[in-house]
Amino acid sequence: MAERILCVDDEPRVLEGIERMLGDELDISTATSGVQGLARLTHEGPFAVVVSDMRMPQMDGATFLHEVRKRAPDTMRVLLTGETDVKSAIRAVNDGAIFRFLTKPCPPELLRAALEAACAQSRLVRAERELLEHTLQGVIGLLGEVLGIVSPAAALASRRSHALVKHVVAALGIQNGWKIEAAAQLSQLGCVALPPALVEAGLSGAGMSPQDREAFRAHSATTQRLLADIPRLEEVGAIIRAATEPLPAAPTDDLSRGALLLALANDVARAAAGGKPMRAAIEAARLRMVPGQRGFDDALASFRDVPDEPVLVRVKDLRAAMVLAEPLVTKTGVTLASVGQEITALALERIRRFAESAGLPEAVRVRLPRSA
Question: Helix/strand/coil (H, E, C) string of 296-322?
């Protein structure tokens, strides 16, 4: 499959020439302005490479490619510039992280070589990102499994908060939402260093002395230390730590916004775990809001749409992303999964094995994922 390239120039003849030269080898799309180019990037992307002329009315190439970098960081950016635009080209390189800049008129063989190199770099960047994402997902999943073994109560609390955060991130279209989701999944990881009785009391929030409350709150600092040396999880640890600290009246960056959302999710999940219906849990969280706190309303509105009523599903029909509303216990009394546990591919395999050897009930109550 040919790599997709977007070429932007306010001179249609230049675009026609590029299509004649490279159209048989590459999948070329064109736009005659920066505004039109951004629209194509949004609605027709992703593109492996974006090529832009420097001198264009309304939005020059440097400004356009700077915006491309923000919207599609994995896309390679190539600038075509006249010899008199060297200063502008330097600005474009600095602001837009240009992969190559070429002077006009550009020989066909030089443009072809530059685009082939840009396509190769784009493939490399995508492969590295996908590998890193899969590695991170594996690390997060493994840490969650370890937490479930050492402290089932803490793991359950994390799963409840993660279900809420995952829903709100999707509903609000939060960029880089994976960091907040990961923070929710790992929010109770530091509980592995605490006595089980303190964890139980801390998660319920009942009957704790000021000393015990402070000792429990310190688990977020432990979590941050555990994650500090794992690449790309440093910010996740910072979000977890900040969610237990006094929150700003108005979040201004990704860290404070993530901490605010995580703190709210933890609050709602704790109230729901105490037996309150979701709407009552949301209202309880609202009443505990800091006076003047902003940034809660959209999240609270999204929490109201989280499915609350469980449904009965045959065990053989269980699917990934369903969440158990009751324990799944074999006929011999072995608990395979607890309340609040999300069904994963690994859990499904384990359930199938036990269904054959130990026997399982015919059906179990679950909460369906929002897309179901």
Answer: CHHHHHHHCCCCCCCEEEEHHHCCCCC
How far, in Å, are 132, 145, 220, 228, 232 from residue 225 at the CA level? Answer: 21, 19, 9, 5, 14
Tens digits of residue pLDDT in 146-167: 888 888 888 888 888 888 888 7
Helices (H) and strands (E) in the chain, counts: 15, 10
Tokens (6 digits) for 91 = 């600005």
Beta strands in 82-144 (DSSP E): 100-103
For 254, half-sphere exposure in the C-beta direction (CA atoms, 13 angstrom radius) is 14
Q: SS3 for 321?
A: coil
Give the count of beta carbons closer than 10 Å to the beta carbon of residue 80: 26
Q: What pTM, to 2 d.p., does this model score?
A: 0.58
Distance between CA 23 and CA 17 in Å, rounded?
Answer: 10
How confident is the model over 167-180, as pLDDT tens digits?
788 777 777 788 89
Complete domains list, the chain, with CATH: 4-126 (3.40.50.2300), 151-306 (1.10.3210.10), 309-372 (no CATH)
